[in-house]
Write a structure and sequence with these properties.
alpha+beta, Immunoglobulin-like, Neutral Protease, domain 2, five-stranded mixed beta sheet, Leukotriene A(4) hydrolase
């Protein structure tokens, strides 16, 4: 693996590599800030080096020391969207193999993009404040000074002071009372310590603190949630997590992170889940009461191998994280539920893939598998494309080589790059090398058009998915399409969808949104009354039904859309609904955003502002 420059970091990561991070934090809920010290142990990668450069963004840097002695340092001018380089001068030049320890005392500011601070009123029981981090892709630098690139991995020690329980992306090692000497501390502060012995990139550094309780959901798994939600979360997850882990292990190799836990966050969390090592941070929208959205956990669990153990070297190769993870997730679904579910999930994914390509434009740089992010914000490129185009590339190779042979490559790949980072070109070389002595496999791989897969924008050829589970959805949608054209005597009734999974309802509604002519308004009301979609507690269903209504410009659903936009912070739902509401009623869209912008995580808030054209 030749080192590659990550275009989205200002650090000199080709000259120094962080091997260990020791971070000591104090949480101040009253000031909505963190402050503390971080000690970075760096390995020197070249000769005659005189300066370490770290990533920072909106941090208040106070003191810097090198190898225990005060050092000269400067914070450079801000370079959007990457922040400000922290340049630390070394007393004398260092050479390849030398160890350098940089210790920085700092605090976060109100402009920190990695943290969300919530007042008690914003939480479910309204008793205590809450905070959580979200560092992917380049937000760790607004939390602490670091080499903020997935090409660098380090072990971690955490020491976190807080008046409320703490979770972090490591193994808990203790809790003790904190007695302040000179530094102030909030009442009742405890010190929570964690250790992460497996090297991880900066974007997987994660913390959360609030009124959090936990319960076992498997022999090596806990669920963390608010006390009032804990039992419901436990019931939703307890039968599935260990099954998912064992299934993934049978496909790849043994789970390495000791525990696999899930923290159900407040509803403002911007993603379905974030694969923080040892503890997935998850949206409460997966807790639907019917286990229909639990497969999100299969996805985040799969990241324990793809993304966490084996990581993309830069965000230009993000498909290596998400394409592999989506592929493994669907293999888990196929093994647990039957192979038809592998295909059914892929059908749903293709729809999201197609919509993302249409949104960017078929020739857009961000619709490629390997993208150019020089001077660009990785958040702007975020979509279903790296997930689904990556999945479809791997599924293409699976079919090309044959499942039996392909399955021998999977553990080899994850063993070869275990605890490392790689590029798409490393992946290609490893695949070709693995099958080089297999004449048949080498012959078919010689026909792979790598440049087209890596660099051609837009959609590839759609695979011939097994539509068994989708056929009934398509047939019902066809009946509604005929009704919409006044060419049918079809009379909808609740029995139409009796026994359907939520996934089948989603496919049905997405088929409706593909109609060349939007559903007529009186038919939307008929669908609402007969199928009860507007009363659904499942965000996947309700968001799709609102999409159907907004595409038809049904004014009766505008206020309901505004209401759920004040309850959901997950970008998968928030961004498309805002875009559609903006087309229908821009005044209401802007009013809704203004009312709820404090509720959204900074990452979500920023991209929605761009979607709405708000400067």
């Amino acid at each position: 693996m030749a080192p590659a420059k990550d275009p989205n970091t200002l650090s000199n990561h080709l000259e120094f590599s962080t091997t260990h991070t020791a971070i000591s934090l104090t949480l101040s809920f009253s000031k909505s800030s963190l402050y503390g010290e971080v000690e970075l142990t760096l390995k020197t990668l070249a000769d005659d080096l005189k300066q370490v450069v770290l990533d920072t963004s909106f941090l208040d840097i106070k003191v810097v020391a090198v190898n225990g002695k005060g050092a000269k340092w400067t914070v450079g001018d801000r370079v959007e969207p990457y922040g400000s380089p922290l340049r630390v001068d070394l007393e004398k030049a260092v050479n390849s193999g030398d160890e350098v320890i940089v210790k920085v005392t700092w605090g976060t500011t109100e402009k920190c993009t990695a943290l969300q601070w919530m007042t008690p009123e914003q939480t479910s029981n309204k008793r205590h404040p809450y905070m959580f981090s979200q560092c992917q892709a380049i937000h760790a630098r607004s939390l602490y000074p670091c080499q903020d690139t997935p090409s660098i991995k380090s072990t971690f020690d955490f020491s976190i002071r807080s008046p409320l329980p703490v979770c972090a992306s490591g193994l808990p090692t203790g809790v003790r009372h904190f007695v302040p000497a000179t530094s102030p501390s909030e009442p009742g502060t405890l010190v929570y310590t964690f250790r992460q012995p497996i090297p991880i990139p900066s974007y997987l550094m994660a913390i959360a603190s609030g009124d959090i309780a936990n319960a076992a959901v498997g022999p090596r798994s806990l669920v963390y949630a608010g006390p009032e939600e804990l039992l419901r979360c436990k019931r939703e997850l307890e039968d599935d997590v260990e099954t998912f882990i064992k299934t993934a292990e049978s496909l790849i190799y043994a789970y390495e992170w000791t525990t696999y836990n899930v923290l159900i966050l407040p509803p403002s969390f911007p993603y379905g889940g974030m694969e923080n090592p040892c503890i997935t941070f998850a949206t409460p929208t997966i807790i639907s009461g019917d286990k229909s959205n639990v497969d999100v956990i299969a996805h985040e669990l799969s990241h324990s191998w793809s993304g966490n153990l084996v990581s993309n070297a830069s965000w230009e190769h993000f498909w290596l994280n998400e394409g592999w993870t989506t592929y493994i997730e669907r293999r888990i679904q196929g093994k647990v539920h039957g192979d038809k579910h592998f295909h059914f999930s892929a059908i749903i994914g293709w729809k999201a893939f197609k919509e993302s390509v249409e949104l960017f434009g078929a020739d857009h740089e961000f619709t490629k598998l390997v993208i150019d992010l020089k001077g660009k914000d990785p958040d702007d490129a975020f979509s279903s494309i790296p997930y689904e185009k990556g999945f479809n590339f791997l599924y293409y190779l699976d079919r090309l080589i044959g499942r039996e042979k392909w399955d021998t490559f999977i553990p080899h790949y994850f063993s070869s790059y275990r605890r490392k980072s790689l590029t798409s070109f490393d992946f290609k070389d490893t695949l070709l090398s693995f099958f080089s002595k297999d004449v048949e496999a080498s012959s078919v791989l010689a026909n792979v058009d790598w440049d087209t897969w890596f660099y051609k924008p837009g959609l590839p050829e759609k695979p011939d998915f097994d539509t068994t589970l989708a056929d009934a959805c398509y047939a019902l949608a066809g009946s509604w399409q005929a009704l919409n054209s006044s060419n049918s005597s079809f009379k909808p009734s609740p029995s139409d969808i009796s026994g359907w999974t939520s996934g089948q309802i989603v496919v049905f509604l997405e088929r409706i949104t593909d109609f060349p002519t939007p559903l007529r308004k009186h038919l939307i009301e008929l669908m609402r009354d007969e199928y009860g979609f507007l009363k659904s507690e499942n965000a996947e269903i309700l968001s799709r039904f609102l999409t159907v209504g907004l595409k038809a410009k049904d004014e009766k659903l505008y206020r309901k859309t505004a209401e759920v936009l004040g309850r959901w912070g997950r970008m998968k739902f928030v961004r498309p609904l805002y875009r559609l509401l903006n087309e229908c009623d821009r005044k209401l869209a802007l009013e809704t955003f203004e009312k709820n912008k404090g509720f959204y995580h900074p990452i979500c808030r920023g991209v929605v502002m761009k979607d709405l054209g708000i400067s």
